[in-house]
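Q: Entry one of two.
A:
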Amino acid sequence: MATTTKKINKITNEKDVDMFLNLKEEDITSSFIMENFAQFNGNPPKFNVYDEIVIPKGAYGLGDIKNTQSFTTTLGAWVFNKFFIEKDLIHIFGYETNAISDGYYGKMNKKLSYALLEDDITLDQLKHFLEKTQQFMPYVSILSPSVTMKLLLCDKVIAKEKERLVRLHKAEIDAGNEIVTEQIEKELLKFAQEYLEGDDSMECYDSGARMKMGNHFKNMNIMRGAAKDPDPDKGYNIMLSNYMSGITSEDYAKLCNTMAAGPYSRGKKTAIGGYWEKLFVSAFQHLRLDPPGTDCGTKDTLTIKLNNPEDYIYSYIVENGKLIELTSKNMDKYKGKTVKMRFSSLCKSKTGFCNHCAGNLFYRIGGFENIGVALALIPSILKNTSMKAFHDSTVKMVEIDIEHAFGQD
């Protein structure tokens, strides 16, 4: 998160300390949030989410799982853990001190998915967690930072640096060079982030909660940038204006043309994706799983370097002649190691894929005897990527090392 200059208060008043220490999940309601963290009529809130409190030994947890030492935490983290974690999920997360950004929230959900598949939590506990995330959504306007004047007016500061870079690369921009345009965007984004460092509004971007620097901020405050011309015989249109300063007359027609790409991706390309989904189901629906516990006995394996063991979770590793299922509990042990793995394409079963070649994922999920229908997930991902182009049409350049892209490493 961005560095801030906020004044952090220490909660020492006995009445306030007792209130927070005795807080229960059911106490955390909209009234509680409003009374303690909301700001009314320009007056400061009673407490800030970044204020700190000392939690004494044994004050957090249930049953045998309690903190064995005192610790200092923010009120925001304390309320989060009391509401989301302590009652049902303390054995999974303990006490969360990480900033709950979009990326970290995704990691938490993945951890909960593994916990459910490995019978560490119940389906009702997962549902309860997800329901509480919805309950908390209205509190965002109270707990989260908002747009500041520094953010609203930053385009005027960025404009001077942009003018310098545009003059420096005028020939490339006039030629429609999308690579140079993206390089200018990156330099200006870096300049903007340095200028806004410490501003409260940057938490909206740092958190990853909807607002993205490379899409929303860039288009609003820097430039619309390069966009593919809808005419396939043409290259890229370069737009140097942004929405805050106003789209110039020179860029207006180019901007209108960009509106064709999003609807086209959402309409035509999703239709293609939907066709491929049906094609995959038709082509592979005959593929089946053998009953749980089956083993075709093959000695054939794939040698794989597990840089991302999550990609192979619940598959079987062959180690010293024994089969070891890769789970969330042991995947850190194998991360970065080269192992031999059973693989479905090497299965010798005559009736389908045996359990040990197919892995345990679909057995743990249940209801997937006809495993072939799951292959429709591949074109489904491509279809959803096309749908997302409706909301983000920024041009991104990526250098690809062919050896790295298609090699094991």
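Q: Entry two of two.
A:
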Amino acid sequence: MSSVTDSSATDRSVITGSAGDGTGGATGATARPTTGSRAAEQPGPAAERRRVLGWPQYARGQFLLSWRVFWRNRRSTFIGFLLPVLLNLVVAAPLRDKEIGGVNAAAYSTVGFIGFALVTSFINLLNGVVARRDDLVLKRLRGTEVPATAIFAGQFGAAGAVVLLQVLLLGGLSVGWFGAQLPADPLLFVLTLVAGYLLFAVLAVALSGLTPSAEAAPMVATPVLLVCMFGSGVVAPLSSMPHWLQGPAHSLPLAPVVETLRTAWFGRPFGAETWSGGALARTDLLHGWQHAAGSLLLVAAWTAGAAVLGRRLFRWEPRHG
């Protein structure tokens, strides 16, 4: 698998320091010296640099490493960056002359694909965590002075930067091509996007513990991708699903994210819209937040559950046997 090979080759630079940035490698990490080596180490520029490194430098090193690995791998670039954009062009373009809930249906779909970008970031993170675990990169990093929080902060930050680029691109399409207005409530939009991203990032770490190898990662990620895309209202409202499926669909992790993103962008209380229904009434900021409160609480509950699952399942090294 090309993604595993590329990730492995670049991640080895973490240990050797060959991808250095002037601070002892891409992570800025140095192995913990033994007592004897500490006594023998002479003060100098290199030792001084090691002493002044802090959490931000370690997290920055992990960010730069994960950023390079992502863009060097064509498979991860396609799935993690291009897939939501290309799918949106295919799905949204034919909807330009239609409306739903009082807004342009193409713009409605585009905001849905902004939410879907969080799922492709989940796939990117799951593949990355499992590949680094199988190549013993995580195990070796754990044996250095790099804090565990810095390892994941850097990796989450790189994937989050990719999502930000997708949001800017898809948002530009919604405004520039489909004639949508700028977000009615930018604060609610950003908060929802960050909360949704954290949910799927933590879920990726948790499910890595159920993924036996990098080769098996697609078998874990693909069901999540399909369920979120077709069962969370990304393309069409949940009201178009059979009645007995609508309740479970509203409880999926992506559904409240997509619903609140649309509420924040269009300033209308989305969630019960239909293709044949009339326009939804506009809401002011206060009522928009009141409408979004339930969805945000559901996202928080999913995130808490994923965090508990991650603490129980996550492994720093492969399961032997």
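A: Comment on entry two: The chain is about 70% helix and 0% strand. The chain has a mean pLDDT of 84.
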